[in-house]
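Question (not urgent): is this output format expected?
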Amino acid sequence: EWVNPLWKRSRSNVLPDPVPPVRAPGSGAPMQGVLVHFPEGLTPHVPQKITMSKILTALTKKQNALIESPTGTGKSLSLLCSALAWQEQERVTTDEANVQIKMRNESSQLQYERE
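Got this back:
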């Protein structure tokens, strides 16, 4: 049976493989144990740093957050930068855990095959 690949629902057909941005090591501001990158040429203001810190705390503790700040204080940019930094940190942590699990599974399978 012929299946049109454009209609096939799979992640590979919908989204391209993600390419992580290339950043200079240490080119971000550490907050709550996460390295937050701000757009090149911009430095976060104090209200933005406070907002990012609160957002990262809420994400880390898996809680809701109500962010309130006057117009023009950079809430959207703060939210995006902190959420993306947290997501990047979670991806790295998950990848490391997956490698450890894979190594453990391979060693147990080798041990099982020897028996």
